């Protein structure tokens, strides 16, 4: 899943672009959440062998309440069909799952419980039914959802790019390649596991790596993405050097010693690039305005308690929480009242602590005047 | 080379006291015109805007603009080492250096201490706020605002400020009860003009704020006997403390919206 080693690469080359933060600091933010990866995580986190339909809904219900009670406005985006190019990757995953299934069988016979669990986790898939149940649950909770025509991450990126949401919530680093301006990781399990949320800002990532978005896409392909094989023998370090030096994939391939680094048989990088640049999405301006409605108490009770067999007390508690936070006043953020002006920076001495900014005095006077009242 | 000398080190100490709990670290932007600082707290609910003009310093030398990124926690610790009547000199070399030096000198010149603080790399951003013609501008004694915040914090967390020509009402309600404090413009002609409460109101305005931030701002009370609150419907309030001869310290606070 995602782009291989991209996180490490960013940590090494653009450390300032990764911020850590706590969940409650994101109040008031609209966050487009890649529902498919989250669903998959609930299943893994909540131990697969118990009735998965139930754990799934339970996870969705509680974690969404957690987000809302922190003042966050989630929008869930669901996957449509996978792009044709991904079929290779999907086939591989299928094979891995099959292998895991066999291993599981073996482990149940002779192995330890630990081994059994390990392989059990690998065979997890999210079924269509589970997806539909989640959509139903979220709608009852009054949370807006978007059904993407293709990949959910791409749809999230589109929503964020057009300013309809502030960030993408996903574990997949693809989101940056697809152009999400801000990516949040660990959104769901940061509080439980006491790990801070990781906030990636695309522009700082690009500045730190010294790349344009197009070059960044080529870098992602070179590192290895879901859509095609990568070139054997080229690791993250070489990949970034190559892209920084040659700028485009065409040039990289031209200058590559093919005897040492043979291209994979199937390497349709132009098509993959196009998939990152112009993915199949619903244009953000054609989506309905996101609205967070009051929860449908009757519907939730019927669905969760009667159909799913949840404890009615816990469901009632959850609904209470949802309602409480719907009605309290919301703290607004300064961000909506100010515009950020990037200070001019001399790219040559970026590393130095004290940066000289020659053109700043004029900007300064301009700024002062905007602060003057009347 | 940057060098600025301030006759009262205590001034910077007071400034730091009021901002160090809101922001962990910030850039002090030094330019030929003076020193300025803009920073938002972690939740992006408040914005600090500090301006210290060059003419307010005893001496001020800055031939080239530079940003000094400092941990405010470290800085305030070091400023605690300054005596109340000490003078303060801030020194920084241009590019190469990764530290800034603070020198404190006692009035009789019999004690000189210097401290170096490591600079940190902070993202350089500048904010500009939409211009606004405020519906209400309230000038009142800063100690009064501090007391109101202290008293009302006992009752609840959210304060409603309603202002019109007659007065400004601060209301709070909580689990245990509710309370109101109303401040009226000074009518007593014996009170000197610079200490009088003045309300300029174009139209009535009602806004809700998180009281804890407002209380935090009032830590700046020692900087100035008077404080100005500027408000308009739906936009952040500005709480501003003038620093005599030197500049001002302003706090923007985003409102709570129903």
Question: Top keywords for this entry?
Answer:
heterodimer, A: 374 residues, alpha/beta, Rossmann fold, 9 strands, 10% strand, globular, B: 258 residues, Proliferating Cell Nuclear Antigen, 2 domains, nine-stranded antiparallel β-sheet, five-stranded antiparallel β-sheet, 15% helix, 46% strand
Structure overview:
The complex is a heterodimer of chains A (374) and B (258). Chain A has helices spanning 6-13, 35-45, 52-69, 87-110, 113-122, 128-141, 152-161, 174-177, 190-193, 202-209, 213-223, 236-246, 249-254, 269-277, 297-307, 312-327, 360-371; strands spanning 18-21, 30-34, 73-78, 145-147, 167-169, 182-185, 197-201, 330-331, 338-342. Chain A has 374 residues and is of the alpha/beta class. Among the domains of chain A are: 17-207, 5'-nuclease (Rossmann fold), CATH 3.40.50; 213-277, DNA polymerase, domain 1, CATH 1.10.150. In chain A, strands 1-7-6-5-2-3-4 form a seven-stranded mixed sheet, sandwiched between helices. In chain A, helix 8 (174-177) links the parallel strand 5 (167-169) and strand 6. In chain A, helix 4 packs antiparallel against helix 5. Chain A starts with 5 loop residues before the first helix and ends with a helix. Mean pLDDT of chain A is 79; it is low at 346-374. Chain B has 258 residues and is mainly beta. Chain B has helices spanning 9-19, 72-79, 142-153, 211-217, and strands at 2-6, 25-31, 34-40, 46-53, 59-62, 66-71, 87-92, 99-105, 112-118, 125-129, 136-141, 158-163, 168-173, 178-183, 198-201, 205-210, 226-231, 237-243, 247-253, 256-257. Chain B has a nine-stranded antiparallel sheet. The chains are: A alpha/beta (374), B mainly beta (258). At the A-B interface, strand 8, strand 9 and helix 17 of A face strand 4, strand 6, strand 10 and strand 20 of B. Chain B: One of its GO terms (cellular component) is PCNA complex. Chain B: This is DNA sliding clamp PCNA.
């Amino acid at each position: 899943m995602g782009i291989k080693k991209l996180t490490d690469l960013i940590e090494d080359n653009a450390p300032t672009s990764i911020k850590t933060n706590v969940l409650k600091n994101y109040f008031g933010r609209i966050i487009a959440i890649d529902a498919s990866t989250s669903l998959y995580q609930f299943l893994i986190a909540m131990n697969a062998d118990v009735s998965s339909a139930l754990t799934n809904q339970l996870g969705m219900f509680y974690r969404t309440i957690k987000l809302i009670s922190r003042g966050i406005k989630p929008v869930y985006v669901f996957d449509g069909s996978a792009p044709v190019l991904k079929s290779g990757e999907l086939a591989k995953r299928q094979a891995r799952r099959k292998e895991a299934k066999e291993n599981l069988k073996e482990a149940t016979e002779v192995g330890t419980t630990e081994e059994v669990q390990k392989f059990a986790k690998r065979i997890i898939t999210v079924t269509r039914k589970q997806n539909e149940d989640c959509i139903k649950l979220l709608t009852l909770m009054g949370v807006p959802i978007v059904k993407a025509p293709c990949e959910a991450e791409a749809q999230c990126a589109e929503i964020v790019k057009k300013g309809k949401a502030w960030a993408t919530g996903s574990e997949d680093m693809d989101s940056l390649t697809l152009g999400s301006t801000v990516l949040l990781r660990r959104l769901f399990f940061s509080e439980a596991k006491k790990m801070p949320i990781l906030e990636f800002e695309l522009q700082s990532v690009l500045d730190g790596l010294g790349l344009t978005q197009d070059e960044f896409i080529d870098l992602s392909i070179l590192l290895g993405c879901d859509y095609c094989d990568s070139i054997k023998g080229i690791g993250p370090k070489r990949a970034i050097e190559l892209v920084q030096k040659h700028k485009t994939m065409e040039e990289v391939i031209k200058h590559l010693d093919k005897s040492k680094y043979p291209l994979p048989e199937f390497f349709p990088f132009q098509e993959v690039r196009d998939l990152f640049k112009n993915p199949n999405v619903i244009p953000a301006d054609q989506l309905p305005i996101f609205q967070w409605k009051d929860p449908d108490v009757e519907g939730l009770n019927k669905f969760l308690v009667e159909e799913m067999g949840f404890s009615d007390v816990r469901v009632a508690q959850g609904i209470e929480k949802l309602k409480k936070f719907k009605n309290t006043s919301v703290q607004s953020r300064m961000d909506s009242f100010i515009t950020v002006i990037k200070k001019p920076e001399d790219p040559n001495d970026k590393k130095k602590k004290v940066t000289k900014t020659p053109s700043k005095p004029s900007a300064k006077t301009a700024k002062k005047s905007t602060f003057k009242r009347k | 080379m940057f060098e600025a000398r301030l006759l009262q080190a205590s001034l910077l100490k007071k400034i730091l006291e009021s901002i160090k709990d809101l922001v962990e670290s910030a850039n002090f932007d030094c330019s030929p015109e003076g020193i300025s600082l803009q920073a938002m707290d972690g939740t992006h609910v408040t914005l600090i805007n500090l301006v210290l003009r060059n003419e307010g310093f005893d001496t001020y030398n800055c031939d080239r603009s530079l940003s000094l990124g400092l941990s405010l926690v470290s800085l305030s610790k070091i400023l605690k080492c300054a005596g109340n009547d000490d003078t303060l000199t801030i020194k920084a070399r241009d590019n190469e250096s990764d530290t800034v030096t603070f020198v404190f000198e006692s009035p009789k010149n019999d004690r000189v201490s210097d401290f170096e603080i490591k600079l940190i790399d902070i993202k350089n951003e500048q904010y500009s706020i939409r211009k606004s013609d405020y519906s209400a501008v309230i000038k009142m004694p800063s100690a009064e605002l501090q007391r109101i915040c202290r008293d009302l914090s006992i009752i609840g967390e959210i304060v409603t400020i309603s202002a019109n020509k007659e007065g400004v009402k601060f209301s709070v309600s909580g689990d245990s009860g509710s309370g109101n404090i109303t401040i009226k413009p000074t009518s007593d002609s014996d009170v000197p003009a610079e200490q009088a409460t003045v309300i300029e109101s174009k139209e009535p305005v009602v806004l809700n704020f998180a009281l804890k931030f407002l209380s935090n701002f009032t830590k700046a009370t020692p900087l100035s006997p008077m404080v100005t609150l500027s408000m308009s419907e739906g936009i952040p309030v500005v709480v501003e403390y003038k620093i005599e001869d030197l500049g001002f310290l302003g706090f923007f606070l985003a409102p709570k919206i129903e």
